[in-house]
Design goal:
It is a single chain. The chain starts with a strand and ends with a helix. It is globular and about 45 Å long. The protein has one domain: Alpha/Beta hydrolase fold, catalytic domain (Rossmann fold, 3-Layer(aba) Sandwich). Helix 3 links the parallel strand 5 and strand 6. The protein has 220 residues and is α/β, with parallel strands linked by helices. Helix 1 crosses helix 6 and helix 2 crosses helix 3. It comes from Phaetusa simplex (large-billed tern). InterPro entries: AB_hydrolase_fold, KANL3/Tex30_Abhydrolase, NSL3/Tex30. This is TEX30 protein.
């Protein structure tokens, strides 16, 4: 279902992938610095989640400014929270590359503003921990503030997220966290000798099993 989400004096294009049965939890998903919500990895993940009973709302926000992207993501969270059509108990924020930075930033901001538990967790696909070859400047400040569960899915050969550096940041995080390494994948999740579909199957299954664990924890 296509929707337009109000954002300031304009609208963000978004698409709901809706499961057959009513969903109590949802995932909001956005793209990296290039591309839009129709980036193949996002389409694949949204379809997989919906087919496994999890509502997924993915949206496009062009713009390379992280503050702008964060504001847009926040507008989408508010929209879904107030939606009459989809009354959800909670959502997980997810993004690819720059989109995951925006998601982390939103969670940090919202946790300082209100203490409701609508946001259940964060999913970072190819989190861009540093610029290529600039390992000394880590983008970890939001991650260290977050308290909700976090899943990282990163390539072990990601030129924007060196393995030891992400493991170091994770060890300092106060949130429950898990890192799933895609062996030999680069920032775009390409792996020599494996098809995109094959890699996406691994990513989608990881994301879903982590969601299921965390939704079960919530119910206990």
């Amino acid at each position: 279902v296509k929707v337009k989400i109000p954002f300031g004096n304009k609208y963000l294009d978004a698409i709901f992938s809706i499961p057959e049965k009513k969903s109590t939890y949802g995932v909001i998903l956005t793209h990296g610095a290039g591309g839009d919500m129709n980036f193949p990895h996002l389409v694949s993940l949204a379809a997989y989640l919906a087919s496994h009973g999890v509502l997924c709302l993915r949206f496009t926000c062009k713009g390379l400014n992280i503050v702008y992207r964060t504001k847009a993501f926040k507008a989408v969270v508010e929209y879904l929270k107030l939606s009459d059509d989809y009354k959800l108990s909670g959502v997980f924020l997810a993004g690819r590359s720059m989109g995951s930075r925006a998601a982390a930033s939103v969670i940090r901001h919202l946790s300082q503003e209100d203490d409701d538990d609508f946001i259940q967790g964060l999913i970072c696909l190819s989190y861009p921990l540093h610029r290529p070859k600039l390992q000394s400047e880590l983008r970890d400040e939001d991650l260290l503030f977050i308290r909700c569960p976090v899943l990282f899915v990163s390539g072990s050969a990601d030129e924007m997220c060196e393995k030891q550096l992400l493991e170091g940041v994770a060890s300092k995080m106060k949130a429950p966290k898990k890192i799933h390494w895609i062996d030999k994948a680069n920032h775009g999740m390409a792996v020599k000798g494996r098809t995109t579909d094959d890699v996406m199957e691994e990513i989608n299954a990881q994301v879903f099993s982590w969601l299921r664990e965390n939704i079960e924890l919530e119910h206990k």
